Model the fold of this input.
Amino acid sequence: MSTFSIYLDHFRNAVTRKYLSDPTKKTECYEQLILMFESHDSLGRKADELPFHLKSTEQFERLRQVISDISLLKLLLSPEREYDLIDYWKTIQVSE
Done:
């Protein structure tokens, strides 16, 4: 494990303890990220981030709508994202 990796782990843990330990605060942070990525100009970044945050907050109907959007679906069908897409659909199916 590299020094950089160790530093990132410590940083991630510190941020989690400070900002995400309270479930209400955690949900508010996710909502802010969701709003930001919903209006993001980069479709690639939107495809990477928005479904993840919707899944994390268990907003399955919104997740279904997002991954059904044809412009994002085209990106999610790419080889580097296809397993994420499968995971999102499985998550939605299990939630029903």
Summary: Helices lie at 3-19, 23-38, 43-56, 60-68, 70-76, 82-95. The chain has one domain: 3-95. The two ends are 40 Å apart (CA to CA).
